[in-house]
Design the sequence.
């Protein structure tokens, strides 16, 4: 056992950090800076990070989920508003069925509560289904039920052209309804159906990625807030010198560190453990990180005081991103249920 | 980045697993019964004699010179086997390794590591808790000895200890942190009185207070230089905050596995609140296992304890108290059959946010030393 990052992983993390430090969102006004967002998207595209889970010649992915998580964490920290999670999850689905990589920017469709991937209903996407990272993707994947398991289908996604077509809390990653008719077209060239283990392994990747994004969001929110606590003065002193404020920030830091440890394990588990074990690791991580991230981002708003409750303060942008990452594949409740199921404990419906 | 065993680690794990399957002493949980504390010494010696204790400590003190991550493997296998955890003496070992001279290390570490000699730690006093440096126990030089007078409290295992690592003031005329020295004091003398303290869950064999009324200790039993006591204390308490040093992953893992089994056997007895508390106990315990793996892997860089120990202490506390809450939800507060084991586990868990430095002190340390927030 040696859970230190390899030199290559350290370099990857540094590269991702450099990109988001240069092109991420450092102020609310930058959310509308189309030129910056385009440059970030171009940098992510050029890096190949969205193709980390596409298939090599023998069908294995180019990189492990640990590398994916490192990039996800940095994008979360810097409020990176370029597609990553949707594209990576779509690539993982294509790899698992043996389909060729998508020719156009692609994402995935979740059912309306974001808790599971959407499933085809008679050739149509179910009502209320939502496409993740809808800003750039042209197609999005859903499950199609087959007698022998699951296969994939794709629907066209129209880019949201104005604000009302975008829904959801997150200001950095638009989620859009799949518009009518949402006709599902079977993916050509697929080699084999997905079984339950494929689905569980895919879910474990989604849980690991969203956990990593939440860890990054916590780091970013904490950095912002600690800087503010140092510089904001009241009663003739920096508010960061007051024990009441210090303890809020210390608790937030501890929550972030615990999240980091369990999320790292979840990312490793995706490729190293059996699918049910990886799903258990991802579920435990996601429940922990979702609870922690909401608390940390709420602390960020609290320590910023009045300004923290205004649109112009970046704290709510972190919170909003955390809310979406939490809901993807389920936040606290559904993952507590998954953790118990992994221990053969039937779950009371109240937990879901 | 790999949580999996190397071939050597796997070989060790399987050897350990086989041994544990035949050597589980079947003691009750440490937090619930005096029988545990009565049997713990024998468990320590058994584990040591089989070659499974002190894995990452130097061979010259009875350790095995293995990488720190072997301690995680030990904790995982102790959890799976449902045995007691490894004895929590690592913080004393680290203190003596770092501050003791060759003579101290040679005379005392082998007995401490092997479990042949029992130890307790005389730091806190009735008027020196979080503010440890204000301690008033005095040590006065008398020829080749020091004479110790004072009152120590919250002294775990003092009833069974052969030795007490005592902090005492040797110089009252310098600033309070600088006038403290550390001594290894033999407990078997009439000038030392030990009184048990009953904890809120009823157990009496863990906690105690110790009164020194002119107790004598050889001057050669001073650890480090005169005035080095505070630095030694900081070494010891910072390791006392590390779950990787204490082996508590196995303590919580055993409890949470037992709780999960209770629910699995009769799920209809437990509603959503108990299920939720159990799920959090499982998750917090898993988080701590992952966190300790991370910290002990970092030691391969030569990194050791530091202010990060305060983070570990708060994470460990969250885990223990989540297990405690699950124990309360699942075990209940009233027991028609007279078995209040889970209530005891819950009540004992409240101590974790106080012992080894309160959670409030840990937050102060994190704010100042890690977040580098200004002092008021």
Sequence:
């Amino acid at each position: 056992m040696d859970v230190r990052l390899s030199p290559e992983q350290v370099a990857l993390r540094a590269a991702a950090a450099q990109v988001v430090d240069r092109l991420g969102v450092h102020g609310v006004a930058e959310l509308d800076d189309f030129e910056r967002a385009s440059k970030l998207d171009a940098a992510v595209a050029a890096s190949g990070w969205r193709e980390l889970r596409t298939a090599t010649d023998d069908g294995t992915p180019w990189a492990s989920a640990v590398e994916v998580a490192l990039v996800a964490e940095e994008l979360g920290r810097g409020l990176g508003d370029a597609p990553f999670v949707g594209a990576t999850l779509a690539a993982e689905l294509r790899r698992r069925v043996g389909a060729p990589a998508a020719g156009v920017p692609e994402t995935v469709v979740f059912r309306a509560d974001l808790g599971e991937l959407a499933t085809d209903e008679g050739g149509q996407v179910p009502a209320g289904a939502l496409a993740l990272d809808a800003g750039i993707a042209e197609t999005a994947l859903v499950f199609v039920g087959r007698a022998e398991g699951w296969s994939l289908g794709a629907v066209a996604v129209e880019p949201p052209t104005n604000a009302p077509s975008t829904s959801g809390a997150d200001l950095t990653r638009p989620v859009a309804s799949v518009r009518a008719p949402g006709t599902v077209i079977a993916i050509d060239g697929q080699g084999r159906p997905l079984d339950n283990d494929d689905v569980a392994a895919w879910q474990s990747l989604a849980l690991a990625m969203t956990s990593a994004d939440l860890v990054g969001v916590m780091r970013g929110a904490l950095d912002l807030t600690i800087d503010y606590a140092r510089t904001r003065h009241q009663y003739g002193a920096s508010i960061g010198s007051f024990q009441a404020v210090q303890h809020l920030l210390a608790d937030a830091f501890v929550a972030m560190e615990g999240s980091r440890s369990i999320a790292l394990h979840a990312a490793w588990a995706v490729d190293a453990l059996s699918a049910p074990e990886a799903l258990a690791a991802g579920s435990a991580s996601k429940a922990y990180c979702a609870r922690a991230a909401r608390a940390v981002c709420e602390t960020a708003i609290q320590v910023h005081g009045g300004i923290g409750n205004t649109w112009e303060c970046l704290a709510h942008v972190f919170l909003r991103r955390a809310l979406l990452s939490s809901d993807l594949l389920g936040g606290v409740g559904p993952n507590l249920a998954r953790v118990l199921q992994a221990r053969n404990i039937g779950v009371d419906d109240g937990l879901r | 980045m790999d949580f999996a065993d190397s071939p050597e680690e796997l070989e060790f794990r399987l050897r350990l697993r086989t041994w544990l399957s035949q050597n589980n002493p079947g003691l009750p949980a440490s937090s619930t019964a005096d029988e545990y504390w009565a049997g713990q010494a024998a468990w320590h010696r058994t584990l040591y004699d089989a070659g499974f204790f002190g894995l990452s400590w130097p061979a010259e003190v009875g350790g095995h010179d293995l990488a720190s991550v072997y301690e995680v493997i030990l904790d995982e296998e102790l959890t799976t086997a449902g045995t007691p955890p490894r004895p929590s003496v690592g913080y004393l070992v680290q203190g003596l390794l770092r501050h003791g001279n060759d003579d101290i290390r040679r005379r005392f570490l082998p007995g401490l590591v092997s479990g042949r000699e029992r130890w307790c730690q005389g730091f806190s006093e009735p008027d020196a808790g979080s503010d440890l440096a204000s301690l008033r126990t005095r040590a006065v030089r008398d020829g080749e000895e020091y004479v110790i007078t004072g009152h120590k409290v919250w002294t775990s295992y003092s009833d069974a200890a052969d030795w007490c690592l005592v902090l005492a003031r040797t110089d009252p005329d310098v600033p309070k942190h600088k006038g403290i020295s550390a001594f290894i004091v033999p407990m078997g003398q009439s000038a030392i009185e030990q009184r048990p303290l009953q904890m809120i869950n009823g157990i009496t064999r863990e906690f105690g207070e110790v009164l020194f009324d002119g107790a004598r200790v050889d001057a050669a039993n001073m650890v480090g230089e005169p005035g080095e006591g505070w630095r030694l204390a900081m070494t010891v308490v910072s390791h006392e905050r590390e779950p990787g040093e204490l082996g508590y992953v196995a303590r919580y893992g055993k409890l949470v596995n037992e709780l999960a089994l209770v629910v699995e056997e009769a799920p209809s007895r437990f509603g959503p609140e108990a299920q939720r508390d159990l799920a959090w106990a499982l998750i917090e315990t898993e988080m701590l296992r992952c966190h300790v793996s991370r910290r002990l892997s970092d030691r391969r860089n030569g990194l050791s304890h530091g202010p990060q120990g305060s983070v570990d202490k708060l994470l460990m506390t969250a885990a223990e108290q989540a297990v405690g809450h699950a124990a309360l939800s699942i075990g209940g507060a009233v027991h028609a059959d007279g078995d209040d084991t889970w209530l005891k586990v819950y009540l004992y868990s409240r101590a974790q946010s106080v012992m080894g430095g309160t959670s409030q002190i840990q937050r102060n340390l994190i704010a100042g030393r890690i977040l580098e927030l200004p002092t008021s």
Chain B has a mean pLDDT of 94. Chain B has three domains: 7-96, 119-227, 236-370. Residues 7-96 of chain B form a domain with the Butyryl-Coa Dehydrogenase, subunit A; domain 1 fold (CATH 1.10.540).
